[in-house]
């Protein structure tokens, strides 16, 4: 099922009042010195959807995700996640969301099983690690050091750690970057399983065919602004002539020169 559009800054798409908003960005801005990383983004994210974020390098995808995760404070505007003010209630939020970290040295020196135990200790409520290990087929790797695993299995371990608190919302920053096609496919199978459990999934990606195939909606960020957010089909309809591919959406909308 594709969740339909209707967010605050959505262009096109219908709205369905029955959809439950789990994240609300209201004119969120983030400035680093003189760099305006995010220039006022308004967006609603709905329960149970897979929302992809696309845009050129430096467009502001990670900054937008980090504001939603409560990791960085917006310079202005408001970010509400599951009813919590992401800026003022990061501790409450932490219990409810899962973040798949990019490559990090944090768990490089420990075994997969140890990393799972360590992450369990961070949360009040946790999901049975055995269940997570089963879902991700991690059993044969439990006694291996994380740094000895292939990129695909390291990503999977990172996802397992993000699931340890049974989060309602899962954030994945470029989860399939650098993975071989089979590992990418397998990771998407898991993401779809999590979606089937009712989880909301937000991810950034540079792979347009993945955005097309797996995302209910795709948010297009260009130079810190949300320029479109809709289903892949509806984004394609925005193209000149109303047809093309998500690669064309990327070229024509995400990577277009401002004002072109
Ligand atoms: N901590 C920081 N300090 C200063 N500038 C930053 C910081 N984090 C991000 N920026 C700048 O903010 C802008 C947006 O960066 P961001 O990482 O959000 O982009 P992105 O779309 O995720 O890029 P990529 O696809 O390369 O990961 C860039 O110009 C970046 O250099």
Descriptive overview:
With 260 residues, the chain is α/β, with parallel strands linked by helices. The protein has one domain: Rossmann fold (3-Layer(aba) Sandwich), CATH 3.40.50. 31% of the residues lie in helices and 24% in strands. The protein has nine helices and ten strands. The protein has helices spanning 61-68, 90-96, 112-120, 129-135, 151-162, 181-196, 208-214, 232-237, 246-254; strands at residues 21-32, 35-46, 50-54, 76-81, 84-85, 97-100, 169-173, 200-204, 217-222, 225-230. The strands form two sheets. Strands 6-7-8-3-9-10 form a six-stranded mixed β-sheet, with helices on both faces. Strands 2-1-4-5 form a four-stranded antiparallel β-sheet, with helices on one face. Helix 6 links the parallel strand 7 and strand 8 (200-204). The longest helix has 16 residues, at 181-196. The two termini are 34 Å apart. 41% of the residues are buried. The model is unreliable at 1-17 (pLDDT under 50). It binds adenosine-5'-triphosphate. The site of adenosine-5'-triphosphate (ATP) has 11 residues, from strand 2 and helix 1. This is ABC transporter. It comes from Tumebacillus avium. Keywords: ATP-binding, Cell membrane, Membrane, Nucleotide-binding, Translocase, Transport. It is found in: Cell membrane. Residues 23-248 form the ABC transporter domain.
């Amino acid at each position: 099922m594709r969740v339909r559009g209707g967010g605050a800054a959505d262009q096109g798409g219908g709205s369905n009042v029955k959809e439950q908003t789990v994240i609300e960005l209201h004119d969120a801005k983030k400035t680093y010195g003189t760099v305006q990383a995010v220039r006022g983004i308004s967006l609603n994210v709905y329960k149970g959807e897979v929302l992809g974020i696309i845009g050129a390098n430096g467009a502001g995808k990670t900054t937008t995700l980090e504001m939603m995760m409560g990791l960085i404070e917006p310079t202005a505007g408001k970010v509400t996640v599951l009813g919590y003010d992401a800026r003022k209630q990061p501790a409450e939020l932490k219990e409810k969301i899962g973040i798949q970290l990019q490559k990090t040295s944090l768990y490089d020196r420990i075994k997969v099983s140890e990393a799972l135990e360590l992450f369990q200790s961070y949360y009040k409520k946790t999901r049975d690690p055995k269940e997570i290990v089963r879902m991700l087929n991690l059993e044969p790797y439990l006694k291996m050091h994380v740094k000895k695993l292939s990129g695909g299995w390291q990503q999977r371990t990172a996802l397992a750690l993000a699931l340890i608190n049974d989060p309602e919302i899962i954030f994945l920053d470029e989860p399939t970057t650098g993975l071989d096609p089979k590992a990418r496919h397998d990771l998407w199978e898991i993401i779809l399983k999590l979606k089937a459990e009712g989880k909301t999934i937000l991810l950034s990606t540079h792979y347009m065919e993945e955005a097309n195939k797996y995302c209910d909606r795709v948010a297009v960020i260009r130079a810190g602004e949300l320029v479109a957010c809709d289903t892949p089909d509806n984004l394609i309809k925005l193209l000149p002539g109303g047809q093309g591919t998500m690669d064309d959406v990327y070229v024509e909308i995400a990577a277009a020169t401002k004002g072109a």
